[in-house]
Amino acid sequence: MILSDISTELKARLKTSNYFIPEREVDDLLSHVLEMSWSDLYLNKKRKIKDQEFEIIQNYFEKLLLGQPLAHLLEKKYFFKNDFYVNSSALIPRPETEILVEKAVEISFQKPMKVLDFGAGSGCIGLSIALENPNCQVWLIEADEGALKVCEKNKKQMKVKNAEILKAEIGVDPIRSSDFGGLVDLIVANPPYISETDDRVESRVFDFEPHRALFCSQQGLACIESWLEVAFSLIQPHGIILLEFGSGQSEQVLSKAQQGHSFEHEWIYDYSGQCRFIKIQKKS
Description:
Layout (H helix, E strand, L loop, with lengths): L2 H11 L10 H11 L3 H6 L7 H15 L4 H5 L2 E3 L2 E3 L12 H12 L5 E5 L5 H9 L4 E6 L2 H13 L5 E5 L16 E6 L4 E2 L7 H6 L6 E2 H4 L1 H13 E10 L5 H8 L5 E7 L5 E8 L2
Parallel strand pairs: 3-4, 3-6, 4-5, 6-9, 7-8
Antiparallel strand pairs: 1-2, 9-11, 10-11
Helix pairs in contact: 2-4, 6-7
């Protein structure tokens, strides 16, 4: 068989799945197995596929049809300049979260900073900041044992020297500024913010990604509230908190932050124009 025929056949078969699977995942799968870029796939449509290559493609594709995320099958996800190792223990990095990293990197270049990554998961946020700015010292905080192993593996594979990983559940376990040699300059947080009763969650996400990293009580606001409280206790005056939240939660997030705290804030929008992040600068 030739490449174009296989691509057409697989994309047609996606419609037989019980899950919605974007056609681009077929291109990503072919790109991975054949070690070709998307443009190479297009330019080499008549390339003959070897039997061994076709068998590998088929094995991956059958699992894809069952809804398994391609990132889990390939054990990698590209995020902010790097491929991160991922599995079912940690949330798959989302493109929108790169906005959080971009803003954090921009802030961190102002001076050498102590940076905390709350709920590190795969480490995609904290390790990206550390790699981008070697003058920062980054601590990645995560509670889940499986996610910690994923984070450790990424730190080791990427040879990140200016980052440490700390096991702690934010809002439950004691986290003190002395753990970091004093108050910190920047905290980046991507908490669980989906309501436990939200039935709009994509079925592939619900079935295959860790619920602990996705869902939270009180309409998705309980972790945001507790994480903000911890963040305010650890950030120095004029320090900055960057927080991701769900679409439509902005006013509730601001209300939670204003409970006993004085700060200036700025809204940050995602690629579709939705208000999805808040930048909080603590007053003295």
